[in-house]
Amino acid sequence: MKEQISLGVIIGNRDFFPDRLVAEARADILALFEELNLRPIMLDEYETKLGGVETFQEAQRCAELFRRHHDEIMGVLVVLPNFGDERGIAETLKMAGLNVPVLLQAYPDDLDKLDVARRRDAWCGKISACNNLYQFGIKYTITQQHVIHPLNTAFKQELLDFAAVCRVVKGLRKLRIGAVGARPGSFNTVRYSEKLLQRSGISVVTVDLSAILGTANKLTKDDQVVKNRLDAILAYTPKGRTPDEALIQIAKLDVALHNFMEENALDATAIQCWTSLQQNYGCNVCTSMSIMSENMLPSACEVDVTGTLSMYAMQLASGSPSALVDWNNNYADDDNKCVLFHCGNWAKSFLPDIQISTAPILGTTVGEENTFGALDGRTPASPLTFGRISTDDCKGIIKAYIGEGELTDDPLNTFGNRAVAKINNMQGLMQYVCRNGFEHHVVMNASKTANILKEALENYMGWEVHQHLS
């Protein structure tokens, strides 16, 4: 569920423009925020002239207000009902020290109101405000239309998108990922740099898989905590032909993972599964991972830490679960379609026909009886945002690609978690993925949030982002 977002609001003013424009803007913003379920943190009308910011003293008051709400404010909206004082805006943000996304909105003028008493000149003032923020080194977001009324439908969507950008930035800067076990020896593709992630505020907490399995093996089917988890699993998905013994193993492992996450205040996990779990414990962890992802605690297989990071970023942007998938197969001779697959741990939101099953491919080497816990299900048609975040040690950067397409209902006769994706210029996308050394894993989300992710990851996180455009 999306939390209510608190935004600081700065209403710019300049003394030789009508003061009533500030009062009108304040009324517009209060109405807008109430409609969109956003919480404004702004000066009261009596604290400065009509609650606007122009002088340095007014900037000090606004900055002090923002500092009092430092932990609540996720972004700042700058409103320009007239030209505004660019210094007051920049000084407020500098003194507040929030380091959050900033959106600039400027009111349009009316052609029949360009006399001295009624003109706004916010078109020009916005350029000056941006210039000052640039000089101060403050990152900011601009609207698609240079000037737009805040009650315009298009601006309402832009403000909601900006709120999503704020969610992504705040969430990533404090993200804690649990890496459970070592990456599979044959999967160099999931190697990553903890140091590059930490520089962006992303912490990785590691644990040996043996520690998790040791905790699980100490539990019994009679422990109440195991019974509770088993009930939760059976309420989440049909068990299919999974034997009771395997369900107990899955529940015990789920308890151990849940304890590890709680003890370390983790937001997400990446778990070793191929093939140590099957050989040394006797089941798949996919069901537990699916439940976590559905509950907005994304979990990726094969210790793909940056895959989990990608899942979390998309979840923050859309407010809905993400899934880690393989770019797996061509779809007949259609150059703009492909098959997405995993064996499978996708969130229940993607699998209306979900049931616990086995992992046939793994079963060929470890015995299919040791792979219960994988999920089976087909993802139906839906919107699609896809993408991938990766650390590039050779360049010393974090990089990503993102794009949009759709999931289709095209026929697909196979097992596991599966979907058909349609993406314009798919061949060009695959060229980019391969030439730039990205992983075979990609993340999907049932949304259209590529623009939000690009703004958050590129502008505010400072990462290198490629947006795939058809």
From TrEMBL:
According to its UniProt entry, one GO biological process term is: fucose metabolic process
Does the entry feature the keyword Isomerase, yes or no? yes
Is Membrane found in the keyword set?
no
Report the GO terms under cellular component: cytoplasm
Q: From what superkingdom does this record's organism come?
A: Bacteria
InterPro entries (alphabetical) = Fuc_isomerase_C, Fucose_isomerase_N/cen_sf
Q: Which residues form a coiled coil?
A: none
- PANTHER family membership: FUCOSE ISOMERASE (PTHR36120), L-FUCOSE ISOMERASE C-TERMINAL DOMAIN-CONTAINING PROTEIN (PTHR36120:SF1)
- Kindly provide the name given to this protein in its UniProt entry: Fucose isomerase
